[in-house]
Amino acid sequence: MSVLPFDQRDGFIWMNGKVLPWQDAKLHVLSHGLHYGSCVFEGERAYNGRIFKSREHTERFQNSARILDFELPYSVDEIEAAKRLVLEKNGWDSCYVRPVAWRGSEMMAVSAQNATINVAIAMWDWPSMFDVNEKMRGIRLDIAEYRRPDPQCAPVHAKAAGLYMICTLSKHRAERKGYADAMMLDWQGRVAECTGANILFAKDGVIHTPIADCFLDGITRRTVLDLARKRGVTVQERRIMPEEMASFDECFLCGTGAEVTPVSEVGPYTFTPGQLSRTLIEDYTAAVNAPS
Question: Quick one: which of 173, 239, 278, 284 has the fewest CB in 10 Å?
Answer without folding.
Answer: 239
